[in-house]
Amino acid sequence: MAKVLKFKDVNSDVEHRLKEFEKLRIKFKAEVKKTEAKRAAAGKPSKGIFKSISDFFTDSPAKTASK
Question: What is the pLDDT of residues 37-54, one digit of tens each?
Fold first, then answer.
């Protein structure tokens, strides 16, 4: 037997989920700002992922010790 939801119940559930989403969004924004502040404090400019990957592949291989 299917459960029939009243409009009021559905509406309150949607409002509750929107409030939870807003809390998560604010938390995420705070984490992003905190990470940016750490990078700025370190003084080292951050590289993008593509720049990091291309640098990895353009580095010359380490020389092995000869016997």
Answer: 887 777 666 667 777 777
Per-residue b/e over 31-54, b at no fewer than 16 CB within 10 Å? eeeeeeeeeeeeeeeeeeeeeeee
The residues near 39 (Cβ < 8 Å, ≥ 6 apart) are 45, 46
Residue 4, sorted as left (phi over 0), alpha (psi -120 to 50) or beta, turns out to be: beta
Q: What is the pTM of this model?
A: 0.45
Quickly tell me which residue has 């010359």 as its tokens: 60
| Phi-psi region at 38: left, alpha or beta (left = phi > 0; alpha = psi -120 to 50) | alpha
